[in-house]
Every structure is written in C-alpha cells, then in structure tokens.
Design goal:
The longest helix has 17 residues. The protein folds into two domains: 372 residues, Isopropylmalate Dehydrogenase; 99 residues, 2-Layer Sandwich (Alpha-Beta Plaits), CATH 3.30.70.1570. By secondary structure, it is α/β, with parallel strands linked by helices. β17 and β18 form a beta hairpin. The structure holds nicotinamide-adenine-dinucleotide (NAD).
Length: 495
C-alpha cells in the first residue's frame, strides 16, 4: 500500500536526494500523502523510500515500533520524514521517537513556534521563536534505580561534549537564519554542576558569535514568560527535559497544534516531523491539517540544500492561508462553513506554488547546497583527558532505619582518619552534625567521608569492607574528585 501511494507520485530526478518516509498511524497517511503531493508538484529533488513504523509494527512484537530492516533505509538515506504514530496503550512499548533520536545521535531538537497575524489571527501577534532542545542527555538518559525501600533515583547526566554540540548548534542556527539573539535557559541556581556546565559553555561559546545578542534565564520564570510574553523571544537553547516542557507550552501559546513542524538534527542523520500526534479520532475523515508535517518537510528541504523548493512550498502555504483557505482546526466561527478538507487544502497549496504572500514577509531560504554544512557543521568534539583528577573522599549512600546519631557513631568507629566522616545528609539536607529535629528523614542517607589529600581507591574499598562488616547496607558510592584542583562535587545543603 505504501509503495502504491508513493509510485503514483513523481519527483525531479536530477541530483535527487534519497530520503526515508514513514506514513505512520491515524491521520499520518493522509498528511504524508498531502505533503508528498505538494513536494512533488513543487519539484523537490528527492527519492522517497517508504518504511513502516508504529502501531502495526509494535503489535507484531517489535517493542520499539520499528523493524531491523527499516534501520538500513535510515542509515542509507540519513534523512527521515516521519508522520506521527500511535503508541499502543499498556506497558512494554518503548518510545519510537526516543529510540530513533538516541540510536541515530539526533542531538538537536529544533522547534519553531510562529504565529501568522494578520493572515491567521490565532495565538499572539508577532510570536516567532525557535526552541533548540538538547535531545540525548539529561534526565532522558533513562538511568533509574530504586535504591532503598523509600527512595528512587533518576540520573541527570550532562556531558561537556554534548553541551558544546547543542550550544554551538543553537548559535550556528541563529547565524544561518539571520536570528538576532540566543537565550539559554537552565536551573543553575540549584543544579550548579550540571546546569552550571550548560550555562558556562553557553557563555564561553557565545563569545565566538559577537554579532548575536545573548542572555540567560532561570527556566521557571523563563517558561512562565514564554506563556505571558511570547513575542519577546528569538532562539532559545535548553537542556532536554526543560525543552520538552517548554516546546509544548510554546506550541499551545502559538495557538494550533496542527501547524508546527520540528527537526531532529544529528551529525550524520536528521529526522523531520510534525509536533502533534496521530489524532486517531479524526483519522480517515479528510479533515486533518497537513501544515505541521509540511513545515517539517520545509525544514528538511533546507537541510538537504534545497532552499529554493523550501521557499516555494513555504510561500505557497502562506499565500493559501492569506487567501482565507482553512482546515477546520484553524477556522474561526465565521470560517467554519467554508473550511476545506485535507485534500482540497493540498490542492489549494499546489495551485499557489510560485506565488508569495502579500501582507506577510515571504519566507526566504538560501538555495545553496552548502546550507546544510553552515547550519550543522561537523561538531564531534575531541575527547580530552588533559585534566589532573584526584580523589579526596567518597559519598557512601546507605539504607538505614537507625537514628542519625546512632548511624554517625557506627560510621565514626570504622572511619579512615585520612578521610573522616564529615557530614550526613538525607535527601540532600544536612542532618548530622547539628541537624534540625524538624527535618523529615527517609531510610536513605548520604554519608560523606572527605579529606584534604588524594586517597587511593584501595582505601575506599577497605572502608566499604568495614561498613559491610558492621552490617551497614551501602547502596551506592560516588567518589569525591577534584579536576585540576577544582571540586567536582556539590556541597551538602548546610555543609
Ligand atoms: P494528538 O496531537 O494526536 O491530538 C491532540 C488534539 O489535536 C486532538 O484533538 C487532535 O484531533 C488534534 N490534532 C492533532 N493534530 C492535528 C492535525 N494535524 N489537524 C487537526 N487536528 C489535529 O495527541 P494525542 O491525542 O495525545 O495522541 C494521539 C496519539 O498520538 C497517541 O497514541 C500518542 O502516543 C501519539 N503521539 C505521537 C507522536 C509522534 O509520533 N511524534 C507525538 C505525540 C503523540
């Protein structure tokens, strides 16, 4: 069926670039057909190769929603235009998006959020921001453990090479797209090491882009301001979880979930998709808005160096909206009666290929083949091992139902004088010495053994053996290290 749908379309063959497409589930096939028809009519120089992903593949027992053979197509074409899929209910199914992003190293998730007043008076007038979300690290590493009866943990991993890649991408994107400002959003007032690294690298790399204005916002007030003052932003770069939440807030503020496209960019591959899901309730009714996938396809065309076609498609789409053609989801009360279906909306865009909007600034993309390299330069950071790392102690996390004073007495009795017990915290707050009786404690204690001079791993192992011998159940250790003399760990609250 997929091959049949595709074989009805013809594409320009000269210098054609192979791409992988997936029709997805729900409204996916309708909006993919619409998008490919428009690309075909616009003269896109592409060779689409269809793969099957999503619900049917999940149901055939592939827990990540994609078959082994489909990876071959993705690895060969390195460009993926993807329609939304339905994730089956119930446990055991892995997110296809997370699998694809991580497996193909798609480190940057780029989401423009634009409103189109006066041609489409939805959302606030003048909103035109782009979120560049880190896509591979942070709490999405998926490393979680239940450590004690009371306490569960999710590891937030932020790497220096990963941060450099995403921050540089944001600045390169801003430069290539004539953007004036890049804002970094983190929570580094609390997470001084992980988010602190993100902020520090942002400031450092930002100096290489003197023509671009930069600022930093704490994430909570930053997202709140996107909601209340959505027009004041330009490009925003942020870690994974914040970016995920921010993208939905921004898309919601912009007015219609059916309108926005997104790109997932990696050093070797890229994936383009609408931000909305498979909308099963409206599937097969010829009422879905194909705009989100179409705008993703425009981003894809720019990525593969076909800015000329991207411009043609984008401007025909703007002109169609300007002429008052609406799908039902973006029609206001007075337009509902004249709203068109997916197929007619597609025909209207095709009929306007070559035209530009009159009241809005037309879209402009560089036609050059080198655009891809300009926006996504080779960003593999060399691995460095040039800092002097020394261990000066260890945090031992233990499960215990004893009182903190009893625990401290037991630990002091077996401590190593070179790195004695300094502090015990419970969920990060100091409870020994001189804890406060009001502090609520769980069964999960962080016991910090720290000295001044470097110690060997053998001494840590020996400390752990003594803990074991007196029946203290340690659940995890973290070494306390310095890098070129700088502390590589945070102080306990109250330390
Ligand atoms: P959804 O985005 O599919 O739908 C939310 C609302 O928006 C619905 O009212 C829907 O009718 C409407 N809508 C969405 N896209 C539209 C369009 N193009 N035109 C007109 N109206 C549109 O979100 P959901 O209902 O939470 O999820 C449905 C399914 O999609 C779930 O199985 C979910 O897991 C999946 N999903 C997939 C992706 C993806 O593949 N990238 C993303 C999100 C959700």
């Amino acid at each position: 069926m997929l091959a049949g749908q595709l074989s009805e379309l013809t594409f320009a063959t000269e210098k054609a670039i192979p791409i992988t497409v997936a029709y997805g589930d729900g409204i996916g096939p309708e909006i993919m057909e619409s998008t490919l028809r428009i690309l075909s009519a616009a003269g896109a120089r592409i060779q689409p190769n269809a793969i099957e992903i999503g619900e049917a593949v999940y149901k055939r027992g592939h827990t990540s929603g994609i078959e082994e053979s489909s990876w071959d197509s993705l690895r060969t074409t390195k460009v993926f235009l993807k329609a939304p899929i339905t994730t089956p209910q119930g446990g055991g199914f892995k997110s296809l998006n997370v699998t694809i992003r991580k497996s193909l190293g798609l480190y940057a998730n780029v989401r423009p959020c634009v409103t189109l007043h006066p041609i489409l008076p939805v959302g606030p007038q003048g909103m035109n921001l782009v979120i560049v979300r880190e896509n591979e690290e942070d709490l999405y590493a998926g490393i979680e453990h239940r450590q004690t009866q009371d306490v569960y943990q999710c590891l937030k991993l932020v790497s220096e090479p990963g941060t450099r890649k995403i921050v540089r991408y944001a600045f390169e994107y801003a430069r290539a797209n004539g953007r004036k400002k890049v804002t970094c959003m983190t929570k580094d007032n609390i997470m001084k090491l992980t988010d602190g690294l993100f902020h520090r690298i942002f400031e450092e790399i930002g100096t290489e882009y003197p023509e671009i204005e930069k600022d930093h916002w704490i994430i909570d007030i930053g997202i709140a301001r996107i909601a209340t003052q959505p027009t004041q932003w330009d490009v925003i770069v942020t870690p994974n979880l914040y970016g995920d939440i921010m993208s939905d807030v921004a898309a919601e503020v912009a007015g219609s979930v059916g309108m926005a496209g997104s790109a997932n960019i990696g050093t070797h591959c890229a994936m383009f998709e609408a931000i909305h899901g498979s909308a099963p309730m409206i599937a097969g009714k010829d009422i879905a808005n194909p705009s989100g996938l179409l705008m993703s396809a425009v981003m894809m065309l720019v990525h593969i160096g076909q800015g000329d076609i991207a411009e043609k498609v984008h401007n025909a789409w703007l002109r169609t909206l300007e002429d008052g053609v609406r799908t039902i989801d973006i029609a206001n009360a007075s337009e509902k009666g004249t709203a068109v279906g997916t197929k007619q909306f597609t025909d209207e865009i095709i009929a306007r290929l070559g035209q530009e909007p009159v009241s809005l600034k037309p879209a402009r993309y560089p036609a050059s083949e080198t655009e891809k390299q300009k926006v996504a330069p080779e960003m593999v950071e060399p691995l460095r091992f040039d800092q002097v790392k020394e261990t000066i102690g260890v945090d031992v996390f233990v499960q215990s139902r004893r009182s903190v004073d009893e625990l401290a007495e037991a630990l002091k009795a077996i401590q190593d004088p070179e790195f004695p017990l300094q502090i015990i915290t419970n969920r990060g707050v100091k409870v020994w010495p001189n804890g406060m009786s009001e502090t609520f404690c769980t069964d999960h204690w962080r016991c910090r053994f720290q000295g001044e001079a470097p110690i060997t791993r053998k001494r840590i192992v020996s400390l752990l053996s003594r803990l074991d011998a007196i029946g203290i159940e340690f659940v995890k250790t973290e070494h306390l290290c310095t890098f070129d003399g700088k502390l590589g760990f945070s102080l306990g609250q109250g330390q």
